[in-house]
């Protein structure tokens, strides 16, 4: 007796919904980040690790753990997806990122561009609650 043939498929959604989010870009899959960007990120991570080590040696091991808990709490606090993006101001103040002067401070924030699609509130909440898959909102038209 032959076993019935089964077709593998994903229940509850598709990994990449081309109708909802547009076609997938191949260039982003092939080309990595710029070498300076990866160097900057690794330097930032090593600086954070050294800072945590120094704080741990100076004030005890409980303070870095408390700082991690505070960072996790502040990173979870967001407003629902919609027309006003979450600024994560508390996390920026806590990490000191509010003092950094990035490109969005003297250029424009990419989310303020005219080519950005409006956010679908319902789909954003479905992704956040795990009922749907895919990015919360497509970035550009």
Automatic annotation (TrEMBL):
Record carries keyword Cell membrane: no
Top-level taxon in the UniProt lineage: Eukaryota
BP GO annotations: proteasome assembly
UniProt keyword annotation of Oxidoreductase present: no
Record key words, sorted: Chaperone
Gene Ontology cellular-component annotations: cytoplasm; nucleus
Family membership: Belongs to the POMP/UMP1 family.
Official protein name in the record: Proteasome maturation factor UMP1 family protein
